[in-house]
Amino acid sequence: MLYLSGIIITFFLSLLLISKKNKSLADKILAAWLICTGFHLTVFYVHTSGNYVHFPYLLGMEIGMPLLQGPFLFLYTLAVTQSRRLTARSLLHFLPFVVVLGLLVPFFSLPLTDKIYVYQHDGAGYENLVEGVLITLSISGVVYIILSYLVLRRHSKRIEQEFSNTERINLNWLRYLIYGTAVIWIVILAGLHDLYIFGTVVLYMFFLGFFGIRQVGVFSNKSLMSPVNDTLPAPEAGIAPPAEQPVLIAEKILPPLSAKTGEEKTEKIKYQHSSLNETEGLKLYERLQLLMSRQQLFKSPELTLGDLAQELQLHPNVLSQVINTYAGKSFYDYINDLRIEEFKTIVGQPDNKQYTFLALAFECGFNSKTAFNRNFKKATGLSPTQYINQLNTAVDSDSVTGQ
């Protein structure tokens, strides 16, 4: 009953994705992934229930299917975290699965009675092939889980270079996919019986269904994540000045990109740190500090690197380089540290005693209690309450000493 329920929920989730309007590439990959998983569960259910003698044409189909899991996870992670399209070369990730199918052609060509005989005698005559597939899928699972995790980690760091507030950029869905797949592979590598392996898969499908339906954008038409561009914006995106204005400092440091600029050239320009010398960099950093001091743009909850770059008339990548080099922080940490310093300033003012910590945090640019507490702890090593208690203790000590 457990496996049958897993089959139903898996195909139901795939149906939700197929019927979804304006499907993204990630949606299509996830739908194909779920269909393959549902089919694999179906074949296993037929086998473990003993009904394979009635459906012998399904025998052997499940042997190579675990080799699909890693590539689907990796390609889905790429599709969600990167704006560029996947190429035909991406299909090469499924080559091991195709090779296994090719090696199984002799088995598929057997009469149905011979297929049943092979299964009833623990794969007699195909032991080496099965052993080779097990080794291959173990390596495949570990490699693709690591690759997917690295892609997600790189994406998380890229987000911190572009956004001051990441609360609306929910990466939990991808984390759960990667961690859940890792748990399944741990069960496989532990050498547990197939009943435990597929039982774990079914529980995983239940979890994905529960969390995915609640998660905005997975099985609905809303955006799963705020987009983060992999490439530089073209000058006409709002960075270049009108003709009557002076040339931007950014254009003196980085050449403007044409519409035909290739990805390789873009990446070269993006990371060409030598184009920004120390004198220019320090001047830009001083301009940044002055702007923050006077206008306190960090108080805008949705401030992005692009917004700040426009205020300074800089290319976003130049600004990011300046912050990383001279502040020694990511854009995310730089802005939130300013918010923390502003909170520390206003929380001690007598006029603000009537307000809660959270109200003051919102005033400083935070948009959630979680983000405020996390960043405050990261910056000071203390919780807001601990910090205030220490501040009050210091004030009382000064009062006693003054008396």
Automatic annotation (TrEMBL):
InterPro entries: Homeodomain-like_sf, HTH_AraC. SUPFAM superfamilies: Homeodomain-like. It holds the Pfam family HTH_18. Residues 286-390 form the HTH araC/xylS-type domain. The lineage of its organism: Bacteria, Pseudomonadati, Bacteroidota, Chitinophagia, Chitinophagales. Keywords: DNA-binding, Membrane, Transcription, Transcription regulation, Transmembrane, Transmembrane helix. The chain crosses the membrane at residues 6-22, 29-48, 54-79, 91-112, 132-152, 173-190, 196-213. This is Helix-turn-helix domain-containing protein. It comes from the Bacteria.
